[in-house]
Amino acid sequence: MEKEEKPCASLNYFLGVSALCAFECVLFVLQLQLGVDESYSLLVAKNDDHSIIGEATIEANTVYGALRGLETFSQLCAFDYGTKTVQVYNAPWYIQDKPRFVYRGLMLDTSRHYLPIDVIKHVIESMSYAKLNVLHWHIIDEQSFPLEVPTYPKLWKGAYTKWERYTVEDAYDIVNFAKMRGINVMAEIDIPGHAESWGTGYPDLWPSPSCREPLDVSKEFTFDMVSGILTDMRKIFPFELFHLGGDEVNTDCWNSTPHVQQWLQDLNMTPKEAYQYFVLRAQEIAISKNWAPVNWEETFNTFATNLNPRTVVHNWLGPGVCPKAVAKGFRCIYSNQGVWYLDHLDVPWDRFYNAEPLEGINSSSEQELVLGGEVCMWSEVADTSNVLQTIWPRAAAAAERLWSKREATSGKNITLTALPRLHYYRCLLTRRGVEADPVTNKYARQPPSGPGSCYEQ
Amino acid sequence: MGKVVKSFCFLVFFGVLVEGLNIWPMPNSVNYGHQIMYLSNDFALKTDGSKYNDASGILKDAFSRLLDVIEVDHVIDSNFSHFDPIAILHGIHVIVWSQSDELQYGVDESYKLSIPSHGTQVYAHIEAQTVYGVLHGLQTFSQLCRFNFTNRAIEVHQVPWYIIDQPRFFYRGLLIDTSRHYLPLPIIKNIIDSMTYAKLNVLHWHIVDTQSFPLEIPSFPKLWNGAYSISERYTMADAAEIVSYAQRRGISVLAEIDVPGHALSWGTGYPSLWPSKDCQQPLDVSKEFTFKVIDGILSDFSKTFKYRFVHLGGDEVNTSCWTETPRIRKWLRQHGLDTSGAYQYFVLRAQKIALSHGYEIINWEETFNDFGSKLSRKTVVHNWLGGGVAEKVVAAGLRCIVSNQDKWYLDHLDAPWEGFYMNEPLTNITNHQQQKLILGGEVCMWGEHIDASDIEQTIWPRAAAAAERLWSAYDNLAKDPSQVFGRLAHFRCLLNQRGVAAAPLVGPGRVAPEEPGSCYKQ
């Protein structure tokens, strides 16, 4: 696509880019929050004389809109090997842009494999290239607990090793690094399942030494701990949503451990009711700290009527869930594992691209309850050595689905409308030092099949 | 408080008997103690008494990179009032004896690193003949540092240290292939940075091959029409940038133009270089134009690639297109050459052109195997086909670089790190004079099946195993690779911490980790 066009505006070092913010932006330090205005317009003027400096203007209501505009502008630029200058082709440009969904996420799992801070920052940087705006940090899980919790300092003994850890300052640093790129960080503590690693430092949290998941619902200590963690995390993570997990809860250890069994009997609760009790109690703690809780869909599937109305339901098990959630008035995030799980290597880019978060939802008031969606990078078999190439370029396909208008991304022959651009984009990523997999791979994270141009693989 | 060595630090990992001696590659001579020191907040570089004025800023930049790298991106947030002042390390005092920062084959890369024990205003010392020795010393120092998660300080354990170090071989290389897949500049620069961590010092840039010709050649500007696309190219300024980036890190760039085979892409811009339209390789031996182009390329190279050597390839030459093209068949007859004679003629003529531009030559081993006695005495033979060749080369009095493909080809994913570690360049070479003719060795990252998406994890950590074979003193090398597993695993995790996508150690090359787990066990 960029091969044949004649350049119409030539840029040298003196590129003038002016960003006009609305009045409010100038006066206040703008909070980065869900739904912040990310719209912008971008104008690149045309000059007839190749050697004269052109001018570009970005206009936005907030600095975050301006960041998006700068990213778009960067993609209009190409290095010309003939004149050895950076050119903007096809000037003049007039672009007006804004995202379709306010929540456009990528989930990173730092429990199955520790990801060094440098790597997390590399991921955040690459997210900004695709205008993704939420990093869902699945910090802790069964296998390891890498984050420092000052109120309960033995928790991070559950880290794999003392080096595979994040201090509180490291977490602040990551949040700030993301904010500078207009990216929110949504932290998750997955409870009551997926929490075996908590007991390395505090074995009382396990139902018993031989039955270690879920967290012991019968103890106040458990909820003190949840409260302590959330208190510490409130200082670090300003995003208005906090993820409390709640997926894949196998209550056998509650049933089979005598003291928990006794507690259930005393309170006349079935294990399923105890699950609900746990989730709701944790939700209340989060809400008391001015968060809206996000929970994996099993909580909705199991006890929708009792779920706090502020809950955002995080769909993952398959399609057809967000329609049910929004019908009941809940907000929803779409991560249908059949199409948006990056660790599923057999899902190629076109299935990422064609997935539609609003599928099956026709009423516009219900559609508004779908905040957006998220691609998930579970790391059971992904670590520093391969995480970037597992994320890219497939995450970019989802990123367009979440940003661009539905009419532009649906019902088209995407081999013509999207593939060439994705190809170009993948090569752009590699030029920026981001390890992005060949686009034409049927199976992700495979090497290229043979020698060839980036633009054809 | 500060002196207590926390026991969890030094649980015996994988049978490493020496506490925390996690330096890779292993230095020549290492002595250490049992104290701990903390790096001060304003850790500084001192150069009093040094003869090197660092006008080019190589040392200053390297020190700045050191500070970045030892933090491994953690936030340093220590309350220094808690530390005993005698346990604070205030900086590094560097002394360089040579004023020159010319980087050439054989430059002195030795250094001495000492970190004294507790005292007042303590500085670490690095002393070296050249600034490049200092760079290696800084690298070693960086591996002694660790971030303490409790007090948020950077510590050095087992002080005092006294390390004397120098490489066993002068040529410790990595080959990258930018013809089979174009590698963008940031990717190449990341590779160069990662090479410094393992003290590799030559980047063998196999720029051009059959599939694409990505480099600008000002003397013959249509050559890079053979690039895959107009944007998968390097300008000469890009090449100069790579050379400079590498040089500032103590790495030389060896440029290669592989002739006469592996050169199909040359004809995209200049079809007359092909024997014929239907038979496009090797380069047409019968034309003067062919040698004019080679001369132009080498002339342009000589302005940018300042390493003493240039690589002229010469491997896998299939001469059928010469005999099948009538015009060339006639030329062969007229000159009384058979196909191997013509191959020899081509290689020797290319060699002469390179010599005329001030280069010494490296050629792949087929040139030696086929007509070794005719090669210029200044030829370095690059062994690749297998073992047993290096000994023949040096017996014939020529220099050699070892890259036997059964052990040191990184694109062979089934070649395990143990094989990389145990591949000994001086195998069967006992004569001391002949041993000196082995310049060193090189691991090769051929690009048919790798690209920007996966090159780092294919290179690392196996290249590190070879890097120790090439740097460390022979007696310091483990006789059984399992003895170094723990130390190499630690180095692999260090690479990851520095953002290098080094693959798990366990298993064949470039596998995904099998399951969740600690970096140190995979």
From TrEMBL, chain A:
<dbReference type="InterPro" id="IPR029018">
    <property type="entry name" value="Hex-like_dom2"/>
</dbReference>
<comment type="similarity">
    <text>Belongs to the glycosyl hydrolase 20 family.</text>
</comment>
<keyword id="KW-0732">Signal</keyword>
<dbReference type="GO" id="GO:0030203">
    <property type="term" value="P:glycosaminoglycan metabolic process"/>
</dbReference>
<dbReference type="InterPro" id="IPR025705">
    <property type="entry name" value="Beta_hexosaminidase_sua/sub"/>
</dbReference>
<keyword id="KW-0325">Glycoprotein</keyword>
<keyword id="KW-0378">Hydrolase</keyword>
<keyword id="KW-0812">Transmembrane</keyword>
<keyword id="KW-1133">Transmembrane helix</keyword>
<dbReference type="InterPro" id="IPR015883">
    <property type="entry name" value="Glyco_hydro_20_cat"/>
</dbReference>
<dbReference type="GO" id="GO:0004563">
    <property type="term" value="F:beta-N-acetylhexosaminidase activity"/>
</dbReference>
<dbReference type="InterPro" id="IPR029019">
    <property type="entry name" value="HEX_eukaryotic_N"/>
</dbReference>
<dbReference type="GO" id="GO:0016020">
    <property type="term" value="C:membrane"/>
</dbReference>
<dbReference type="Pfam" id="PF00728">
    <property type="entry name" value="Glyco_hydro_20"/>
</dbReference>
<dbReference type="InterPro" id="IPR017853">
    <property type="entry name" value="GH"/>
</dbReference>
<feature type="transmembrane region" description="Helical">
    <location>
        <begin position="12"/>
        <end position="32"/>
    </location>
</feature>
<feature type="active site" description="Proton donor">
    <location>
        <position position="248"/>
    </location>
</feature>
<feature type="domain" description="Beta-hexosaminidase eukaryotic type N-terminal">
    <location>
        <begin position="31"/>
        <end position="76"/>
    </location>
</feature>
<keyword id="KW-0326">Glycosidase</keyword>
<feature type="domain" description="Glycoside hydrolase family 20 catalytic">
    <location>
        <begin position="101"/>
        <end position="405"/>
    </location>
</feature>
<protein>
    <recommendedName>
        <fullName>beta-N-acetylhexosaminidase</fullName>
        <ecNumber>3.2.1.52</ecNumber>
    </recommendedName>
</protein>
<dbReference type="GO" id="GO:0005975">
    <property type="term" value="P:carbohydrate metabolic process"/>
</dbReference>
Automatic annotation (TrEMBL), chain B:
<keyword id="KW-0326">Glycosidase</keyword>
<feature type="active site" description="Proton donor">
    <location>
        <position position="316"/>
    </location>
</feature>
<dbReference type="Pfam" id="PF14845">
    <property type="entry name" value="Glycohydro_20b2"/>
</dbReference>
<feature type="domain" description="Beta-hexosaminidase eukaryotic type N-terminal">
    <location>
        <begin position="23"/>
        <end position="144"/>
    </location>
</feature>
<keyword id="KW-0378">Hydrolase</keyword>
<dbReference type="GO" id="GO:0016020">
    <property type="term" value="C:membrane"/>
</dbReference>
<dbReference type="Pfam" id="PF00728">
    <property type="entry name" value="Glyco_hydro_20"/>
</dbReference>
<dbReference type="GO" id="GO:0005975">
    <property type="term" value="P:carbohydrate metabolic process"/>
</dbReference>
<dbReference type="InterPro" id="IPR025705">
    <property type="entry name" value="Beta_hexosaminidase_sua/sub"/>
</dbReference>
<comment type="similarity">
    <text>Belongs to the glycosyl hydrolase 20 family.</text>
</comment>
<dbReference type="InterPro" id="IPR015883">
    <property type="entry name" value="Glyco_hydro_20_cat"/>
</dbReference>
<dbReference type="InterPro" id="IPR029019">
    <property type="entry name" value="HEX_eukaryotic_N"/>
</dbReference>
<keyword id="KW-0325">Glycoprotein</keyword>
<protein>
    <recommendedName>
        <fullName>Beta-hexosaminidase</fullName>
        <ecNumber>3.2.1.52</ecNumber>
    </recommendedName>
</protein>
<dbReference type="GO" id="GO:0004563">
    <property type="term" value="F:beta-N-acetylhexosaminidase activity"/>
</dbReference>
<dbReference type="GO" id="GO:0030203">
    <property type="term" value="P:glycosaminoglycan metabolic process"/>
</dbReference>
<dbReference type="InterPro" id="IPR029018">
    <property type="entry name" value="Hex-like_dom2"/>
</dbReference>
<dbReference type="InterPro" id="IPR017853">
    <property type="entry name" value="GH"/>
</dbReference>
<feature type="domain" description="Glycoside hydrolase family 20 catalytic">
    <location>
        <begin position="169"/>
        <end position="473"/>
    </location>
</feature>
<feature type="signal peptide">
    <location>
        <begin position="1"/>
        <end position="20"/>
    </location>
</feature>
<keyword id="KW-0732">Signal</keyword>
